[in-house]
Specification:
This protein is of the alpha+beta class. The chain is 41% helix and 21% strand. The chain is globular and about 60 Å long.
Length: 280
Amino acid sequence: MFYKTILISIVATILTTSLFSTNFSGKWELSTLGGNKDVSIKQKGSKMELFRVIEDENYKVEHLIMGKVEGLEEEKQYKLYVKDDDMDEFELLRNIPLKQLSGDELMLDGVHLKRLTPVIGRDSKIDDKSKNQLQKQNENSDENKKDSFEKDKNNSSEKDKNDFSEKNSNSSESEITVDNVIDLIPGGLSDSFSDYVKISSISSEKEAMITKGENLIAKKEWKKAASQFHKIEKKWKNSVVIYPHLLKIYQKLENQSKISYYCSRIKRFEPNHSCGGNNE
């Protein structure tokens, strides 16, 4: 019974992930000029997360990009969260466009992102924690199968005993091991990046103020929009989510000093950000 439960669980996982044409879990590489090009992707069901670290001797920035898998054949807006050494939590910086070009290639904010490792198989970089958990599960499975065999042998009919003995004699062919479970489950067994990090939530008051500012931008009321986002800047110090908005506003107002300032604030978290042009 325990053995059947494990098999049912595996099949359910496979069916869930097979609802989507591609599983993106694995190691990927950005075709950028300079900086760390490595990107790790984890997909669980319809949820996908991309994680990247940009660092040098004195500085480190982490990117966590989150969104839904469905409809990636068309460009979708994901959420880009950022964190540096001075921040306790990841904070939303901006929306970032993502599109699937093929099973092994994505377009992230105008930059090609190519898969380095296969999605299925033991190259899928299962982490040690998950591997140990699975090994323990297998050990428990072996013990439970032995107990189950003895119980069934004592309680079942002669025909059931024969059937069970035949099934048990073939069990070596379908033994659940770490390696073949990794082969069966796309991306291996691992938790989401967001399970291990703190993500700052936006209060309803702040969200309402941001929405008001975005509505003013949509109406092209640039000076009023600037005033609205500066209110947010004053109330929530170093709130990174306002930087892209203020950059856009001052580009429209052609205020070069403000453009330079907010461009530099964004580049602190996104070194390759074009501040209005095409990304590298």
